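Bumping my old thread because nobody answered last time. Still need a sequence for this structure:
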């Protein structure tokens, strides 16, 4: 287990964030994390669909992801009647767990109430899938989160970006910019992801899976 995982298990804040969390954020909180890479060059990439979904969710709830802490940008807002934190780790995709372990440990949020949104090459464009736990399927951002928390048992919303066909093309595929047409196709998908987050929080995992794990 990583150093961050051990910190999380003891629910102790990271050394740089050692003061008490605000009293109004002590129970029932959810964390919704969109994975991606910071920097304008990655803004429209497939690997940044998690960031796009986090921004869409923030816009829907009238907040901006402009608070910088825990190596991330975040905002606090109720979602489906529950207190929630929307966050975009700024550690680059493959080290997303560094941010999330610190944030969850500080706010004492259980792993069961973490929702991670990320791109998924094994799904066609415009499809989403919800699940809890399981393999990272080669996704290094998910692997980082699981390693930092010491468990893979968080909820994931996977957004399909399709597979390029050849394994050697995978990195280029996820990092190159989406076309204008692809962005248009994904606009409604981001709304469905925001709906799925609300359903997960309000109705639970099984209900959300039955509603959103469908072909479009």
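Sorry it took so long. Here it is:
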């Amino acid at each position: 287990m990583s150093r961050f995982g051990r910190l999380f298990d003891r629910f102790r804040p990271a050394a740089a964030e050692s003061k008490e969390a605000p009293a109004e954020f002590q129970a029932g909180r959810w964390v919704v994390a969109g994975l991606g890479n910071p920097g304008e060059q990655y803004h429209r990439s497939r690997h940044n669909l998690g960031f796009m979904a986090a921004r869409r969710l923030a816009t829907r709830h009238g907040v901006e992801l402009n608070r910088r802490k825990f190596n991330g940008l975040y905002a606090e807002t109720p979602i489906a009647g529950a207190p929630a934190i929307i966050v975009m780790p700024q550690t680059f995709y493959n080290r997303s767990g560094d941010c999330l372990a610190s944030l969850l440990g500080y706010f004492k949020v259980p792993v069961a109430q973490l929702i991670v949104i990320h791109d998924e090459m094994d799904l066609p464009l415009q499809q989403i899938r919800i699940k809890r736990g399981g393999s990272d399927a080669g996704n290094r951002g998910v692997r980082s989160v699981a390693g930092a928390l010491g468990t893979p048992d968080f909820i994931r919303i996977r957004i399909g970006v399709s597979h390029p066909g050849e394994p050697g093309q995978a990195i280029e595929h996820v990092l190159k910019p989406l076309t204008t047409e692809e962005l248009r196709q994904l606009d409604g998908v981001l709304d469905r992801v925001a709906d799925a987050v609300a359903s997960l929080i309000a109705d639970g995992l099984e209900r959300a899976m039955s509603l959103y794990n469908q072909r479009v």
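The first helix runs from residue 3 to 9. Let me know if any region looks off to you.
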